[in-house]
Specification:
The protein is mainly alpha-helical. The chain contains 17 helices and no strands. α3 packs parallel to α10. The protein is globular, with a radius of gyration of 21 Å. It starts with 7 loop residues before the first helix and ends with a helix.
């Protein structure tokens, strides 16, 4: 940290926004990229077994997105309040928000773990498992749900540290767990001959390790500490967390529903279609990691300076985030379009899987540049607590537009229709974002700056 800033809160308020957002975004982007690699590690190693195994973990991936949805709902919902309270110099109230969210999430994870013990196979069928994948998916799902208290806790603490301007501590917890997962996968899958079950066990061990490191991070750098004494839940606290976290829940939760719907849409076309679209989604997550990482780097700057009434910094940060994410994702889209077959083949060297995944990836790369502006705008409105518009935008990409398309286009165009769904949904989301965000930008420019 530069010596001209007395602490990280002084830095959030006074450092030039371009450098500040980039410095906060880099650890977050690295976290997202490593997380993307670790998400794909299971696909890579399991891909050495057979196509049904790849399809089975693709089915359970929707549960991972659901856990992420709940974690970000509580983490972002409380994190926005934490950052705003710190901008208002009320650390005690910020501590209450942090601890209420964490203990609530951990309790929810315990309930999910119990569900996983008794109902994992039935849940796998609901998620779209076929007769050839239901046993594999059920085994994978059971262990993932057993680890859900620590998975939820990691997502929540990750967001808390990030909103306090401690993105490096956040990065250390998530990255260490992700790297451990990559290292453990081949041992549990092949050396111990556990197959898909081994991939799940490796994931859970890694998540527990990451959670412990994140807990240690809360005791460093002046961060808010975990404290049972600060667990003071009340209606006002929960309503505020829910209101501010609703866009995150909508964004991540609808992603889960979209993944389940995609699995069902792929089912008539066989395991290769499920595997191909599963690999496509994981590759696309790699590109979105950079966009979301920059957006999350902007969020603490936006929330803190909104609380400190530094509105020009809010607007300047938004402009920078929208531009830099658009430039980066455009370059990545060009690379993705050119090397689509090679990227898909990394995870499953199957001609049909590569053909399906490549077609979907290339169509998506054509429209990916619009996601930079959409993400920056959504982060702006959520961080300013404009939750109604933020929630609508969060639902748009994989809900309002995606779900009707996934149920119609494959019926009209067959397996090719699967590839059209996300690109068309993204274009429609961009149009909606322009319409909703322009009023808020006008307010910032005319009334607050």
């Amino acid at each position: 940290m530069s010596k001209k800033y007395k602490d990280k809160y002084d830095r959030l308020k006074n450092e030039p926004v371009k450098g500040l957002i980039s410095s906060l975004a880099m650890p977050t982007i690295l976290t997202m990229l490593v997380s993307a690699v670790y998400n794909m590690a299971d696909s890579y190693f399991v891909g050495k077994i057979d196509t049904s195994s790849v399809a089975s973990i693709g089915i359970v991936f929707s549960v991972m997105t659901l856990l992420q949805a709940v974690g970000f709902f509580l983490g972002n919902g409380s994190g926005i309040n934490i950052s705003t309270c710190l901008g208002e110099k009320d650390k005690e109230k910020a501590s209450v928000f942090a601890n209420v969210a964490l203990f609530t999430g951990f309790g929810a994870g315990i309930i999910l773990a119990v569900i996983g013990i008794f109902f994992s196979r039935g849940l796998a069928e609901i998620l779209g498992a076929t007769a050839t994948t239901v046993d594999l998916a059920g085994d994978y799902l059971k262990y993932i749900l057993l680890g859900s208290p620590f998975i939820l806790g990691s997502f929540i603490l990750n967001n808390h540290l990030r909103y306090q301007g401690s993105a490096v501590y956040s990065m250390l917890g998530i990255v260490s767990g992700s790297l451990l997962n990559i290292a453990l996968d081949p041992f549990f899958i092949f050396k111990f001959n556990l197959g898909v079950k081994g991939a799940a066990i490796a994931t859970v061990i890694s998540q527990i390790t990451g959670f412990i490191i994140l807990v240690i991070g809360t005791f460093k750098g002046g961060n808010i500490r975990i404290s049972v004494k600060a667990f003071k839940p009340n209606k006002e606290i929960y309503l505020s967390i829910c209101r501010n976290g609703l866009p995150s829940l909508a964004r991540q939760g609808i992603s889960t529903l979209a993944t389940v719907s995609l699995n069902h849409a792929c089912e008539p076309f066989g395991d290769s279609a499920i595997a191909g679209m599963s690999v496509f989604n994981r590759v696309m997550f790699l590109g979105m990691a950079v966009v979301i990482g920059y957006g999350q780097g902007y969020q603490p700057v936006c929330s803190f300076n909104n609380g400190a009434k530094q509105y020009k910094r809010v607007y300047d940060g938004y402009k920078f985030t929208a531009v830099i994410t658009t430039v980066i994702i455009t370059l990545m889209s060009v690379i993705g379009f050119i090397f689509a077959p090679e990227l898909i083949a990394v995870f499953r060297d199957d001609r049909e899987v590569i053909e399906i995944g490549t077609r979907a990836l290339r169509y998506q790369c054509i429209v990916m540049p619009v996601t930079g502006f959409c993400t920056a705008s959504n982060m702006l409105m959520q961080s300013l607590k404009i939750s109604n518009k933020a929630t609508v935008l969060a639902l748009a990409r994989q809900g309002i537009f995606y779900l009707p398309l996934i149920f119609t286009l494959p019926r009209i165009f067959g397996i090719s229709g699967l590839s059209f769904v996300q690109p068309i949904a993204d274009i429609l989301s961009f149009i909606l974002t322009v319409f909703l965000v322009r009023t808020e930008i006008k307010k910032l420019k005319n009334n607050r700056i």
